Amino acid sequence: TMLLHLLASTAAYTCRHAPQHVRVRQSLRSNSPITLQLHDQRRDVHAPSHTKGEGDDPCVYFIMGGPGSGKGTQCERLVEMYSLTHLSAGELLREEVRSGSEEGQAIARVIQEGKIVTSETTVALLQKAMARAKGPFLIDGFPRSLANLESFEALVCKPAFMLFLEVSEKEMLCRLLKRGESSGRSDDNQETIVKRFRTFEGDSMPVVAELGSRGLLRRINAEADADTVFHRVCQVFSDQPLLHAALH
C-alpha cells in the first residue's frame, strides 16, 4: 500500500512540475502500473493550434460505415457545415507512397508484398497531418481494426465519438455496382465487393462494438437519400459545443 501511495504521489508531483513541453499521461487501466508518456511538443511550435477536446487532446470524430455506405458524401458535407478537417488514413498512405520518401517506399514494399501496414505507421501519418492542420478533426474509415484503435488512443487521444452509417449489404452492393458502371474501378465488381464486406465485418465491426460498449458510438440509418442522411448526421453533431465554437 505504501508503494502505491508513493507511486501516486510521484506521478502527481510530476504532473504539477513538468515543463509545458512535456505531457504526462497516466494509464486508465486499473490493474496497470502508472506509466508516464513524454511528448516533446517543442517540435510542433509552428503547428496550427487545435480546437481541443478533453485536456490538451485534439477533438477527433471517427466516421465509419461499410463499403458503399456513403461516408465520402457525408464527410464532404460535414466539412462544409462545421469547418472540420477531414483526414482519410487510406489517402494519407497513398500520398506518402506518391511522395517517394523513405517512409513511402517502405509502405509501398509492404503493400506490394500483400502485407498490412502497421497501426503505428498509419497513426504516425495521421499525427503528422494533424500537426499541420487545425481541428476539430473528422477521420474517415479509421480505425479499421482494434489494433488501429488501441494505437490511436495510446499515441494521440480518445475520440469524442464514432459516427456509424448503417446500410444493409444489399443496398451497399447495389450502390457499388451502380458506381462501377461509370467509375472504371477494378474493385467495383460483385466478387470483390463481397470480399470487402467480409473483411469489414471481421476487422472493423469489433471496433464499432468496442466503442459502443463505452458509449462512444452514434448510429444512424443511412439507407435514405444523401440529403435525408445528412439531416440525421447533423442531429448527431448538434450537441457538440466544440463544433459550434469552431464556427465563430
From TrEMBL:
The regions listed as transmembrane in this protein's record are none
Q: Which UniProt keywords apply?
A: Kinase, Nucleotide-binding, Transferase
Q: Which GO terms describe its biological process?
A: nucleobase-containing compound metabolic process
Matching entries from PROSITE patterns are given as: ADENYLATE_KINASE
Q: Keyword Metal-binding on this protein?
A: no
Molecular function GO labels: ATP binding; nucleobase-containing compound kinase activity
SUPFAM superfamilies xrefs? P-loop containing nucleoside triphosphate hydrolases
Domain of life from the UniProt record: Eukaryota
Family per record: Belongs to the adenylate kinase family.
What is the designated name of this protein? Adenylate kinase
What is the native source organism of this protein? Coccolithus braarudii
Q: What's the source species' lineage?
A: Eukaryota, Haptista, Haptophyta, Prymnesiophyceae, Coccolithales
